[in-house]
Amino acid sequence: MILFQIFFIIFFLYLTVKTIYKRDFLPKALFFWILVFLGGAFLLVFPEFSSKVAKVFGIGRGADIVLYLGTILSFFLIYKLYLKIEKLEKKLDLLARKLSLKGKH
Amino acid sequence: MHTQTLVIIPAFNEEKTIEEVILQVKQVGFKNILVVDDGSTDKTRLVAQNSGARVLSHLINIGLGGALATGFDFAREKNFNFAITMDADGQHLPSDALEIEKALKTNCGDLVIGSRIDSLWKKYKKRFVINFLSNIFTYILSGLWVSDSQSGLRGLNKNALEKIKPTQSGYEVSSEIIILAKANKIKVWEIPINAIYSKYSLEKGQKIQNAFNVFRKLLLN
Prior knowledge:
With 105 residues, chain A is mostly helical. Chain A is built from four helices and no strands. With 221 residues, chain B is α/β, with parallel strands linked by helices. The interface between A and B is medium-sized, with 11 and 16 residues.
């Protein structure tokens, strides 16, 4: 095992423990993030697994499929975040408008 | 006669011009003036109150659309027959607001828009281009051609007030109002008005860079 693997395995395990102990997430989100972190750690311990999966999908190297999936996941998360921020902004606007009409400010 | 009409002035950091705008509007006979202070960080609220306007303040800055929506809500709540929106930077003449009111009262349209297109063409070519592009996009989205889709001087009667409830928070609200008017089969009428752009109002108004944002929001929502 090379230093790179050890470092990132520790990092992913640290994130997992931190996520569980912080109790900031709802169960669904908690499950998702633990899956991402432990999945990352698993691929670092067993890099050959990603190569096997890559072959099934017709992709040459294991590292490539990890990169592709990471990119797709990042886009998906940015999209979700964008929607969430828009929704929050709308709620905040409505709150400020309602307060002003009630003369609370 | 003017008691049935509410003049709505959305304002964000307009302490330099708001007093004069309110006084001029009062001078031509309007009795009910509402300034929607959109989270100003200067003395807009205080100056407006001292000038004799009713002021509603947003705790945070929402944008032109949010301020107009608050104004429309207030007009509905207080049962006004007509609402006229006007910019706080002094670019509109109160006499034009009177013309808008006249058009509403004589049933020319449910939504009466003051079109600056003539004076823009004559004096402010860059503004004319921004407006023309906005008109095209508004037409694509609404199916209704309006010569000045971004005009801040407009009037609504009760029918329009009941049906036009904008949800966009920023400058895109101007196009949204036209889209909603068309969707709700509201009669739209335009009358020519003057535009007086000072250096101040040119700096504060819509920028061409903002156009992209406006259309992205209109398309996505």
